[in-house]
Write a structure and sequence with these properties.
By secondary structure, the chain is of the alpha+beta class. It has five helices and five strands; from the N terminus they run E-E-E-H-E-E-H-H-H-H. The longest helix is centred in the last third of the chain and has 29 residues. The protein is rod-shaped, with a radius of gyration of 29 Å.
């Protein structure tokens, strides 16, 4: 009885065995330790097909997650609105059309910036998903890709 694994033409392992070598497996097998056999799905055949190598870990692509990016963008929008004296970006947008010119102008500027920022975020998401762009690695890099904050009217 021997410990071995079998592989396909691409070197992907197809099974792990503790038995006498079967005739139909004699052309594509590699002797394996008990540990390798027990964890055979973590391995592939090496290029020479005379040993095993660990399959490299699949890492997530670099960059912020979509959720982290959305939280960062919302925080930036709300922070500027608060700096201008509003509760958040949503409350600032309620002043669009206000009879007081200052509130109307500020609400309009913040609402337009909010819309442009979320549109830019959606465009970036689509480009990343299509493989045409890489997700920014940091919040600062993400925010640098968004439209600049408006100047207070």
């Amino acid at each position: 009885m021997i410990s071995y694994v079998t592989y396909d033409v691409d070197g992907n392992l197809t099974g792990a065995y503790l038995q006498d070598l079967q005739d139909d497996q004699a052309g594509a097998f590699i002797l394996a330790s008990d540990s390798e056999r027990a964890n055979w799905t973590a391995y592939r055949a090496n290029a020479a097909r005379d040993g095993l190598e660990l399959i490299p870990a699949t890492l997530p692509p670099p960059g912020l997650t979509k959720d982290d990016g959305e939280v960062a963008i919302q925080a930036a929008l709300d922070d500027l609105a608060r700096a201008w004296g509003y509760d958040d970006i949503k409350s600032a947008a309620t002043y669009v059309g206000d009879p007081f010119a200052r509130f109307d102008a500020e609400g309009t500027a913040l609402r337009n910036w909010r819309s442009a920022t979320w549109a830019a975020s959606a465009d970036l998401d689509a480009a990343v998903m299509a493989g045409n762009a890489t997700a920014p690695a940091t919040v600062a890099a993400l925010l640098a890709l968004m439209p600049p904050a408006p100047v207070r009217p």
